[in-house]
Amino acid sequence: MYTQIRNYFYDNRHNIAVFVLINTACLVCVALVVARVAYSASNRHLGLIWNLFLAWIPFILSYITHAVSWRRNWLYLILPVTAFLWLIFYPNAPYMLTDLQDLARRPGGAPLWYDVIVVVWCSWTGMLLGVISLYLMHDIILRKFGRAAGWIFVFVISGLSSFGIYIGRFVRLNSWDILQNPAETAMEILGIVIDPSMRLAAFTFLYTFFFLFIFLLIPAIFALSDLLESLLAGQAMDFSILRLIRDNPVQIVQILVIASSAGGPTVRGRRPPARRRRPGG
150 lies in a domain? Predict the structure, then answer.
């Protein structure tokens, strides 16, 4: 039982580490905001906690969708619903990056360096929640429809989420508007798409490129971690062999002598061919 538990934690060590780190980061975010409110007696940055809660929604939806995707009976029943809700709420996670511009409107009440660490910590945590949820959804598309469809999905979602962040920050629409007033919200979004501005094009392009960079960067870091782990394991094995030779030189020589003598005479590293017996000899 202990061995099974240990093997499970070892096989899932990266997933467990990410889950623990994200929860720790969220707790730190809440603590930083609460400390800021207590110090300054103002409600500034309390909205970051709400945005962080919204960033957890796509993460939870993607986790449920990923778990259901392994069960064929529930796949086509639940997957469309959870995938649609995930698509609506997903921009809330990377949206927190735009909270950095709130630092330009500085009313005081706390040191600037403290506000910087609060906003950056919360924004980066929300971004990580979004990227991980995108990984889970990408894995579903990859398994069901192939590698090409998986990467097309990532490109499309990155572009749509960038557009969603834009309408959330500048048009002041949110995910709840789509659920409460779908027709009116759709007409407003259609008007923006028909007559796009230069700011919309630049914003969507740059944020899409940034999301793709982050999406590719994180697995590269994990791959580098695995490579370093394997290299360190190989060095540890080499060091153990060297220590064995250093601590038991006489025994090693005896083993080599016995092995060479048991192998018989050799010519140029090869055993001479055996002679055939003559019939009747």
Answer: yes
Mean pLDDT of the chain: 80
pLDDT tens digit sequence for 80-95: 888 888 988 999 999 9
Q: Is residue 67 part of a domain?
A: yes
**What would the mean pLDDT of 158-164 be, rounded to a whole number?**
92
Question: 258 in a domain, yes or no?
Answer: no
Q: Which residues of 234-263 are buried (b: 16+ CB within 10 A; e: fewer)?
A: eeeeeeeeeeeeeeeeeeeeeeeeeeeeee
Taking CA atoms, 149 is separated from 78, 134, 161, in Å, by 20, 14, 18
Q: What is the CA radius of gyration of the chain?
A: 30
Instruction: Convert the pLDDT of each residue in 265-280 to its tens digit.
Output: 444 444 455 555 555 5
Number of domains into which the chain is organized? 1
* pTM exceeding 0.85: no
The answer to the question of residue 252 being in a domain is no
| Integer CA distances (angstroms), 113 to 106, 109, 165, in order | 12, 12, 26
User: Residue 130 belongs to what domain range?
Assistant: 2-238
φ, ψ at 267 (rounded to 5°) = -120, 115
- Cα(50)–Cα(88) distance, integer angstroms: 17
State the amino acid at position 88 in one-letter form.
I
